[in-house]
């Protein structure tokens, strides 16, 4: 069983990562702006399912290697931190292009999207989200208590916590965006602000990952 203090610390760090408007959140917002609440929530469901596939991969594969090797852990952690900073800088520099991205979603909506297709598109974004991949591979193993044993089970529990937070957060983003779709779409400045704040937060999270050590 994961100790309560580690579980809460992991939940807090997960929340910081999840609320940042990264690839998954922006995809959900785009669907909400283009197609409304139902498409947004379907996308969230697919995205969450895709993210948990990553949890399974880490728990039964990469995670066990990271858990046994300090060198692999440190290398992966620093690489992950650097990539989060890179994504943050990229999001900051590209914040002005969000309106064009959302316009593409509107065009796609006009062409027609079924519920199942929307779900699988959300799944694809979730399972290939680089921010989530880096977080699970580089951060999740830090919060495992090796003395308690059942490392894979602990990772599955931590991953479940992450996904519950993500499900709620992404659903809120989608519902808010669907409600305010006209207000968002009319202002490039508002869309730019979303991307800018997300970029800066991602940079901060990358720095945090870099200076965080193992919880041994």
* Strand tally: 0
Averaged pLDDT, please?
Answer: 75
List segments where confidence is low: pLDDT < 50 over at least 5 consecutive residues: none
- Report the major sheet: none
Amino- and carboxy-terminal Cα gap: 15 Å
Shape: globular
| Structure class | mainly alpha
| SSE series | HHHHHHHHHH
Helix content: over 70%
Strand content: under 5%
Rg: 18 Å
Number of alpha- plus pi-helical segments: 10
Describe the fold and architecture.
- The chain has 216 residues and is mainly alpha-helical.
- Helix content is 83%, strand content 0%.
- It contains ten helices and no strands.
- The chain is globular and about 55 Å long.
Properties at a glance:
single chain, 216 residues, 10 helices, globular
Secondary-structure topology with pairs:
Blueprint: H1 4-19, H2 23-35, H3 37-68, H4 70-93, H5 98-111, H6 115-127, H7 130-138, H8 151-179, H9 181-185, H10 188-211
Helix pairs in contact: 1-8, 1-10, 2-3, 2-5, 2-8, 3-4, 3-6, 3-7, 3-8, 4-7, 4-10
């Amino acid at each position: 069983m994961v100790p309560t203090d580690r579980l809460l610390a992991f939940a807090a760090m997960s929340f910081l990562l999840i609320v940042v408007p990264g690839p998954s959140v922006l995809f959900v917002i785009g669907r909400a702006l283009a197609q409304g609440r139902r498409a947004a929530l379907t996308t969230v469901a697919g995205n969450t399912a895709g993210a948990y596939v990553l949890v399974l991969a880490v728990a039964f594969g990469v995670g066990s290697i990271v858990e046994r090797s300090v060198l692999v852990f440190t290398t992966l952690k620093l690489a992950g931190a650097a990539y989060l900073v890179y994504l943050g800088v990229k999001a900051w520099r590209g914040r002005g292009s969000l309106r064009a991205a959302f316009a593409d979603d509107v065009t796609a909506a006009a062409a027609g999207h079924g519920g199942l297709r929307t779900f699988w598109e959300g799944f694809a974004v979730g399972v290939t989200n680089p921010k989530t991949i880096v977080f699970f591979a580089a951060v999740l193993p830090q919060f495992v208590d090796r003395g308690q044993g059942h490392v894979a089970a602990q990772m599955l529990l931590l991953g479940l916590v992450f996904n519950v937070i993500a499900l709620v957060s992404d659903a809120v983003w989608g519902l808010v965006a669907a409600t305010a779709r006209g207000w968002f779409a009319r202002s490039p400045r508002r869309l730019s602000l979303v991307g800018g704040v997300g970029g800066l937060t991602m940079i901060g999270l990358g720095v945090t990952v870099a200076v965080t050590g193992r919880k041994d």
